[in-house]
Structures are given as structure tokens and as C-alpha cells.
Amino acid sequence: MGFLGSPSVASSYYSSSRVFLYPAAFVFWVLVLMNGAAVCNGGKTSTFVRKVEKSVDMPLDSDVFRVPPGYNAPQQVHITQGDHVGKAVIVSWVTQDEPGSDVVLYWSENCNEKKEAKGKHRTYKFYNYMSGNIHHCTLRNLKFDTKYYYEVGIGQTVRRFWFVTPPEVGPDVPYTFGLIGDLGQTFDSNRTLTHYEHNPHKGQTVLFVGDLSYADNYPNHDNVRWDTWGRFAERSVAYQPWIWTAGNHEIDFAPEIGETTPFKPFTRRYHTPYKASGSTAPFWYSIKRASAYIIVLSSYSAYGKYTPQYQWLEEELPKVNRSETPWLIVLMHSPWYNSNNYHYMEGDTMRVMFEPWFVQYKVDVVFAGHVHAYERSERVSNIVYNIVNGLCAPIRDQSAPVYINIGDGGNIEGLANNMTEPQPKYSAYREASFGHAIFDIKNRTHAHYSWHRNQDGYAVEADSLWFYNRFWHPIADSSSV
């Protein structure tokens, strides 16, 4: 039977080392009265029903898309991690009128002496669209846990921003990640980003699980919508790194208009530090950040045996030192466990290839997007099947990750609200709403996770769970019995 209390109640209940025994019927009815959740075969399907509304993109003259004033002013400024351990930052921006300067000036909060880094710029053409000048510059040899200011647009219209580097990598270093996916640029997208920005416990870095601009939903993959999205997201991603995962809306493969280079706009605009982890392509890579080891995979690149992504992951997982980075987090776009009829089983072929490794190396949590709703799984695996035994259903497995689908940023395609019934046993909590999540690492053994529906107050947790590290504290952290 599913645990019928709220997830926050469930997590606190199970975080106790003591077990209290009550008459079963009494517990059942108390919990039903507390939450009114539906009884189902699996966990909990939220009773919250979001009003059905059409998703609408914000018009091009919206304030959030405003071009910054000044001649050739840098726009679409964004940062991401620039090396493997967090001592470098890739700064990217666009100048529209002319190339302008490739230089970034930067200095730490406690030192006014400005340093200079020089990057490169390029343009690209997509059908009848010509991009602005896209600049990328890597700031290296930064100090850990330090606030830096940086300036772009040197010699013309200078714009200033700041960021904070992560603490030095270590097993008990606390750190907080935000989780956003499938964002787009609708009115709901704006609500989600605002909700994240105002969360009193917002992340220090965003783990973005793919599908950025949705420009490909417009005629001829209108790349103007890549520009508007870049200006929209700047208010967050210019100040804290977003770690990029490529989704299906980044493919931009359109042979009908002569565009046959997959991922062209995405790779020109959004760089990743893939070479630092020995990857041969920007779509799969790893980084360390504080006490976390983050592996990014590509659902839309080849991953069969002998492919570059397969071989890279096979070599990468044994490198993870859980005594240095206890928390092993994987990002991908297409989910492996999904009880929504939208995109049902699309991620299954990758699951078949890689799931045994995830169990072997005790991955703590896998975040995915693609499905425009929210869902959290139990710790399950489906790796014992062979052609003889017929064992082809997921089972509880405390060495397996929790799978969380958070493709609920608010994009133009709307909510995925067609869930399979009955709710499968592997599904712990699901809801057709938009929102964001927070993964708050406390130390090597404990992390607190929360999902925030974008229609609630800023601090409200619609779903939450205490995670117990699979390597250092592998006790059950389920939210259902």
C-alpha cells in the first residue's frame, strides 16, 4: 500500500531511527484525513488539480526579452562550469551590432585588481537567420568559495555581473542545487523561474535537464526565439552556473529547410566543459562540485555498445571516488521510469544499456525532463530479466537510484496530464503541474530534496524527501511502505 501522508511527513517519519507501532486501521484513516490522497497500486498521485489552461509564449515585446540599452551592449549573458573541479567558469554572451571585444575583466570581492581573460567569438547561419556574435571566454585558476565580479562589453557598453565559485571538493561540503527542465518562454516559464529565484533556499547552481528555448516549435525553427530565451534566462544564469543537458528540442535537425547539422544552435551558444572529463562531445561529460559528482548523459546521441558515449561512461563510473565526492548524480533528458502516457518508455533502450551500471556504482539520484509533469520513483531496478527467467518488472532495490522527472518548467507544449492507471508500484509521487526542485546536500550521508509547485508560496514544498547516501548511509529512504 502506498504511504498516504504528505511526502514531507513521510520523509520525517522515515528519518527517525525508531519505529512506532499503531493499529493499522487507525493509521490508515488518520493519514487519509491528513492528505486526502488517492489510494492506488503504487505511491501517491497528487490530489492537486491544476486548472487546465493553454500554454502561451510571452510576446516578443515583453519586458523579460528586452534588449539591454547601449551600443552593442552584451546580451544573453550566461555562465557554466569551465573545468572538472569548479575552479573555472565559461562566460558567454552575444553582441548584435558588431563583434566588439572578446575580453572579460574579473576580480574577486576582496581584491580590486582586475584580471583579464580573452575568449573567441563566432556566428552561425540557420536557414534564413544569421546570429549575432557569440562570445565564449573561460576564466581559469579561480579561488574556491569566492565571489567574483566580471565585466563584458569592454570598450563599448560595459555590463557587470557576479558569481560565487563552489567550495573546494570534499566529502562533507554542503551545497545546494536547483533543478529546472523543459523551461521554454511562456508565461508559465516566467512563473517557474521567478518561483525559483524567490525560493528562500534556492540553489547555488542549476542542474538543467534539457529543452531550453523551444525555437524548433516555430516555423523554420525560428532562431530569434533562441535570442529571446537567452535574454529571458540571463537574470539567473549570468549570476550562477547552469549545468547544461541537451534535450530533443536542442537537436534542430531540419533537412526540409537544408539544416542537417544536429544541435547547431545549442552547440554554438551553450558550451560545456566536456574535454575536462575526457569526453569527445559536448553532450556527455562530468563535473565535480563541492561533494557531488555529476554525470551528464545525452539521450539523443548514440549510446549502444562501442559508441563513444558508451565507452566514455564505462570508463567514467569507476573514476568516481565516493570518499571525495559521496553524492553521485546523473542528468539526462528522456526518463527511464515514467508512468505518464506522454513519452512512455522512450528512455527504455538507454535504461537497458546503462541501468546495471547505475546499480553497481550506487547512483544516488537521476534527474530527467522530457515529460511535462512531475514524478518521483522509489528506489527500483529492472536488471534481472533474461530471455529465460521472464522477470521483467521493476523491483525495490536499495542500491538503485531514485528517478525524478522534472520536465515541468512551463513550456509552450503544456502539461502532460495523461497518467497511466493504476499508478505502478515504482512510482512514489506524481503530479501534473509546473515547478522546480531543490537538492540540498548537508554532508556525506544526508541530503534534503524538495519539489516546489510554481503556484504555491515560495517556501512551500509540494513533495519532499530526505535522501540517505547510497555509499555512506545506504538505509531505506522511501516515502512509502
Automatic annotation (TrEMBL):
* Protein source organism: Punica granatum (Pomegranate)
All residue ranges annotated as the Purple acid phosphatase C-terminal domain in the record: 400-459
Q: Which family does it belong to?
A: Belongs to the metallophosphoesterase superfamily. Purple acid phosphatase family.
Keywords tagged on the record: Glycoprotein, Hydrolase, Iron, Membrane, Metal-binding, Signal, Transmembrane, Transmembrane helix, Zinc
Main EC class of this protein?
Answer: hydrolase
Highest taxon of the lineage = Eukaryota
Q: Which residues cross the membrane?
A: 20-40
Q: Which cofactor does it need?
A: Fe cation; Zn(2+)
What chemistry does it catalyse, as a reaction equation? a phosphate monoester + H2O = an alcohol + phosphate
- What is the name listed in the Swiss-Prot or TrEMBL entry for this protein? Purple acid phosphatase
